Amino acid sequence: MAGLGRGPVAGFVLALVVGAGCDRGAVTLTPLPSGAQAVSLLGDTLWNMPLEPGLGPLLVQQLQAAQRHLAARPGDPAAKLLVARRSAALGRLREAVALYSEVIAEEHGTARVYRRRGEILLMLREFKAAARDYGRAYRDPAGAVVKEFAEDSAGGLVGSLVRYQAALGLGLLHQVQGDYDRASERFLVALEHSDGADELVESGLWLSLALRRAGRRAEAAQVIGGIPSNIEVKNRTAEFGLLRMLRGQMGIDSIRSLAASGGPEDESLVLYVLGFVQLTRSDTTAARDAFAKVIELGQWTTRPYLAAEGELIRLAPRRR
Question: Residue 83's Cα: distance from chain center in Å?
């Protein structure tokens, strides 16, 4: 978007520091009780990852099939990566990190592998390690051409550039930590690498939120106004509806109905944005209530949950 940004935004160059001489395969996770996955920013121990009802048995079958495939081909990095993906899908995030780390230590680390491990590390609230992995994925020239593929809501495959996903992850990392200017920089990069309507509205929404929270309302309005209202969105209908709400084209009640039909993750996103809007209006009580409802929904691996945690930490009364 021409003219958007302040100074370094337009010519953004990622500058994450990676320790010289460190073992890129090794990641030391925070010690936790057996079975626990992470500790939230609010101090809660996070155990099982929420799964869609009835999906568990299928995910178990897929993991077992991947494990059998790996047992037959123990030296195949692709087989190990498949087990890592299936483990993560089932909520075994720490096991997935260990498998990705093995692949990287065996000199098979790629932009895609670092991006995937970075995403899980972010879910686990291991922010420094996540930033390193996302940074490696972003800086790798392959990240600008290599795509990752995931199933969409209709069962088809949707491709996404590794650099897009890495920039989006870095933006969320800074958003959670309250660094809204740096979050804006990363989300802008994601917007510039978006491919298709779904990625455009996804990155556009998060960029507009970060800019608004940074006090850059005119730029936020420019982002919102620059996204066409007649584009065909397949999977990011909640994000598109929220952009239309911020533009004054859709009411809050309609947004809530849309979110409820999309499931708890969409509902979490809507509640987060509603809380965000209340926060920019200086209604901290209403904002805190909305963020607390995000936490109650329990989708602790999602972006809205992570972002709501960060906002609740900053809204907490300061101890004297």
Answer: 21
State mean pLDDT over 50-55: 87
Name the pTM for this structure: 0.88
Question: What would the 3-class secondary structure string for 246-300 be?
Answer: HCCCCCHHHHHHHHHHHCHHHHHHHHHHHHHHHHHCCCHHHHHHHHHHHHHHCCC
Contact 166, 201 (CB under 8 A): no
Pairing of strands 38-39, 147-151: unpaired
pLDDT per residue over 242-291, tens digit each?
999 998 887 777 777 776 777 889 999 999 999 998 998 899 999 999 99
Show me where the domains of the chain are located.
251-320
Contact yes or no for 305/295 (Cβ under 8 A): yes
CA–CA distance, 253 with 259 (Å, rounded to integer): 10
Q: Which are the contacts of 13, defined by CB distance < 8 A and separation ≥ 6?
A: none
Cα 129 from Cα 28, distance rounded (Å): 9
Handedness of CA 228, 233, 238, 239 (dihedral sign): negative
Nearest alpha-carbon partner for 213 in 184, 187, 185: 184
Instruction: Write a three-state SS string for 70-105.
Output: HHHCCCCHHHHHHHHHHHHHCCCHHHHHHHHHHHHH
Q: Which amino acid is at 303?
A: R
pLDDT in tens, 94-137: 999 999 999 999 988 899 999 999 999 999 999 999 999 999 99
Q: Which of 119, 108, 35, 44 is nearest to 77 (CA)?
A: 108
Tokens 């992470």 label which residue?
A: 38
Chain segment 140-168, per-residue pLDDT in tens:
999 999 888 776 655 666 789 999 999 99
* 158 vs 224, higher pLDDT: 224
